[in-house]
Amino acid sequence: TPVPEAAPADHLSELTWLIGSWEEADKEAGVTVHSSYQWARGGNFITRNVTVKRRDNPVLEGWQIIGWDPVAEGIRSWTFDDRGGYSEGTWTREGQRWLAREYGYAADGSRTSADQTLTKVDDDRFFWESGNRTLDGDPQPGIGRIEIKRVKGE
Predict the structure, then answer these.
(1) What is the pLDDT of residue 27?
(2) What's the pLDDT tens digit per position in 5-52?
(3) Is the pLDDT of residue 121 over 90?
């Protein structure tokens, strides 16, 4: 008897913990980052909307689609920002830690790359950090570990 193939949603089930609203705030700098992850219609993709605000004024908006790549047999993401930049990432898991290796372009055409790491702490918290960042091949400063918390009641 043939074994039924897993649906794309089955492969994404490991990321179910992300579904919901999340927020990080740097009160000193007056910066707030709000992300909302949800299942796309059909359940085969996860979508993320992100808004960065400085003192209640939006400074960046972005959208991400996370899905199963049946050719590479792995999780992949596509990220777009409101300035016209975009990137594509491949995701790998090590325990409670996810690494998204991303390559893309800024709105001006410069090449970008970064390793985004999400580490699940519990159902209501994860750490995010960004390393190995480049702009047109030149190394850029990393972003250290930031604690992201689930927004309750949304």
Answers:
(1) 82
(2) 788 888 899 999 999 999 998 888 888 999 999 999 989 999 999 999
(3) yes
Helix (H) or strand (E) holding 11: helix 8-12
The contacts of residue 28 (CB under 8 Å, 6+ apart) are none
35: exposed, middle or buried (C-beta count within 10 Å: 0-12, 13-18, 19+)? buried
More confident residue, 3 or 24: 24
Comparing C-alpha atoms, which of 64, 68, 58 is closest to residue 31? Answer: 58
pTM, 2 dp: 0.91
Cα separation of the two ends of the chain: 44
Find where tokens 């359940």 sit.
43
Q: Which residue has the tokens 């480049």?
A: 134
**124/145 Cα distance (integer angstroms):** 16
According to DSSP, the β-strands at 97-105 and 74-81 are unpaired
Report the b/e string of 71-102 with b at 16+ CB within 10 A.
eeeebbbbbebeeebbbebebeeeeeebbbeb
H/E stretch holding 12: helix 8-12
